[in-house]
Specification:
GO terms for molecular function: catalytic activity. It comes from Agrococcus jejuensis. This is Amidase. With about 475 residues, the protein is an alpha+beta fold. It has one domain: Amidase signature (AS) enzymes. It has 15 helices and 17 strands. The strands form five sheets. Strands 8-10-9-16-17-13-11-12 form an eight-stranded mixed β-sheet, sandwiched between helices. Strands 1-3-2 form a three-stranded mixed β-sheet. Strands 4-5 form a two-stranded antiparallel sheet. It is globular and about 60 Å long. The relative contact order is 0.14.
């Protein structure tokens, strides 16, 4: 790893933030076409090494950029992201663009309508330029499938970029774009962010609502964003959040709550000042709940000192999250039944084993097991409510491991503890998903081998803006956000 980093087709636009690029396009300093052509050239230069962008239609994208420039020339009202080129996560529905979820059974699937998060980005002026890779049917936190192959990490192309938003993470880290959309059920935004030195936010349920015709009451999986800065995540949340028709779980606050002055313009405050006075509980391994690799522990164990030096009140009185395992596993299994049982029945031989296993797990759940998981969720909610009555944040590791060998399906052991299945190595994220709390991964350090490590900040449900403010303050004092890979 080096800084400033990659040299393959670098331009003055390559490492701009999304806010900066949007400002330059709106001012007329850069056209939408110029921004898109620059992005496509960057993809051509670096994607052969990482395999992040798996679907392109340059002619269609260029036509969209030209329409954006025509609107600007005509003096029409422009969205906040007018002309900004952006690839989208392959599993998220995009009208007229292939959306296969990495499954050979869906290889020819082309949705007729955009998912809500995509529709809102496009309404704000984003020019779609392609789709980024995912694990098959988004199962697991390592990005590989038989349709498109394996996505690798820009910081070490023999290593995993995480998943399921691994293609998006690799593209952002490699300078293809400054930010992008993804989704997170069990760490699918947070883990790849940790692996690639990015920020990754899993919001509170209802911030970016689940809306008809999908299941509007779904709560375990959430749409969200990754970026090189917290400020850019806040910008995309401002664009994509807010209530929607057909979404009964919508949070009624508008997306503009994310336009906090300190998130819009971080220079208006002293670095790290957003941490002063916060009550923060810190535990790398959640009081022994998680095995953690020594290389990760060596970095995350220091975060308490960083927070305290910035003026936070730090202790180790964390909530008991042991019920999170049962809640997550049962709800995930039920969601997999709802989403994928028909595909498994259609042709089980063409569905990867991890998905078949998760669907089968859901099909075999008993009424007692479902009722037990509901009771566990109540206990977990009580723990969370009690904890946040006296704390502002919980801080723990994002991933229990460093980016691992990309030829593996998943890590089979952590610090001497065997993993029983492909979910267990992700527990640092999955038990937090089970709480319903918003959570964000922030870069905190790199190993001696140059592999990024992130730390996970967790806030009470609904406290997404406060979470971003704290994350930005940590970003300012951690000192690793500006590092870039060499490709």
């Amino acid at each position: 790893m080096s800084d400033p980093g990659a040299t393959a087709h670098e331009s003055e636009l390559t490492w701009l933030s999304t806010r900066e690029l949007a400002t330059r396009i709106r001012s007329g300093d850069v056209s939408a076409r110029e921004a898109l052509v620059d992005q496509l050239a960057r993809i051509d230069a670096v994607d052969g090494a990482i395999n992040a962008v798996v679907t392109r239609d340059d002619e269609r994208a260029l036509a969209a950029a030209d329409r954006a420039d025509a609107r600007a020339a005509a003096g029409e009202p422009l969205g906040r992201l007018h002309g900004v080129p952006m690839t989208h996560k392959e599993s998220t529905d995009t009208a007229g663009w292939r959306s296969t979820k990495g499954s050979p059974l869906l290889a020819d699937r082309v949705p007729e309508r955009d998912a809500l998060v995509i529709a809102r980005l496009h309404a704000a002026g984003v020019v779609m330029s392609g789709k980024t890779n995912v694990p098959e049917l988004t199962a697991g936190s390592h990005t590989f499938n038989t349709l498109f192959g394996t996505t690798t990490n820009p910081y070490d192309t023999t290593r995993s970029a995480g998943g399921s938003s691994g293609g998006a993470a690799a593209a952002i880290a490699a300078g293809v774009q400054a930010s992008g959309d993804g989704s997170d059920m069990g760490g699918s935004l947070r883990t790849p962010a940790s692996f690639t030195n990015l920020v990754g936010l899993r919001p509170t349920n209802g911030r970016i609502p689940h809306a008809l015709p999908s299941d509007p009451w779904q709560w375990l999986a959430q749409s969200g964003f990754m970026a090189r800065t917290v400020s850019d995540v806040a910008l995309l949340m401002a664009v994509a959040s807010g209530p929607a028709h057909g979404a009964p779980a919508s949070i009624q606050e508008p997306g503009t709550v994310f336009d906090h002055p300190d998130l819009v313009d971080p220079s208006r405050h002293a670095p790290g000042s957003g941490l002063a006075g916060l009550r923060i509980a810190v535990s790398t391994d959640l009081a022994g709940l998680l095995p953690v690799e020594p290389a990760v522990r060596a970095i995350v164990d220091r975060v308490g000192d960083v927070l305290a030096a910035a003026g936070a009140h730090v202790d180790d009185r964390i909530p008991n999250l042991a019920d999170g395992d049962e809640v997550f596993r049962v709800q995930r299994a039920m969601d997999f039944v709802a989403d994928y049982r028909d595909l498994v029945r259609q042709d089980p031989s063409r569905v990867k084993e991890a998905v078949r296993w998760n669907v089968d797990l859901g099909m075999r759940l008993t009424a007692d097991e479902i009722a037990d998981a509901r009771e566990a969720r109540v206990r977990l909610a009580t723990e969370i409510e009690t904890f946040f009555a006296h704390h502002d944040l919980l801080v723990t590791t994002t991933s229990q491991v460093v980016p691992f060998d990309a030829s593996l399906e998943f890590p089979t052991a952590i610090d001497g503890t065997r993993m029983r299945d492909y979910l267990e190595w992700m527990r640092a994220s999955t038990v937090i998903s089970a709480t319903g709390c918003p959570a964000i991964s922030v870069p905190i350090g790199v190993t001696p081998e140059g592999l990024p490590v992130g730390v996970q900040l967790v806030a009470a449900p609904g406290r997404d803006v406060a979470l971003l403010l704290a994350a930005q303050a940590l970003e300012e004092v951690a000192g690793v956000a500006g590092l870039r890979p060499t490709l």
